[in-house]
Amino acid sequence: MNLLKTLPGLMLLGLIACTNEAAVENKGTAVAAATENVAAADGELTPAENNAVAVRMFEGAWNEGNFAVIDELIKADAVDHSPLGSETGSEGFKNIIGMFRGAMPELEMSIQDEIYSGDRVVHSWKILGEHSGTPLFGVPADGKEITLTGITIVRLEDGKIAERWTQLDQLGLMQQLGLIPPAGGPA
Question: Going from the N-terminus, what domains does the chain have, and what CATH number goes with each?
Fold first, then answer.
């Protein structure tokens, strides 16, 4: 199995790329920029184009509430491996995004960091929003600011998201909602 096609290989590549960029400064950036624009031999999107698809998904669905972009960018048989529930197809994505957008209607998701190689894109992200809408995990809206961080990995196929893996700070979210006491006991 090709090391670069495995998730640990991709993460190792990202670590090496970050280390090399720090060590070589501008040379690492120039190499990354040069390789981003080389089309794959089989006609697949370049890593930079794959990243653009994932960013468009974040911007359109999360920040703008445009669920049509989900149908456009998610394959019909896409698998969502989420700690909040794994589903197939675009409905699972719509349900999760809809739950958070319903609870925090003015939420803003920002990408904190990104790594992309081959057909995989990794984003570290942060969601900020006021819990002023529908209940979130059974907790009625109270106007408190909520911060949620996580990491999402997507695999793209034919210019669309075919799989997604997400890990998010569920403990921090549950503490902010008052469902779990903060570390060290009640404040």
Answer: 1-36 (no CATH), 45-176 (3.10.450.50)
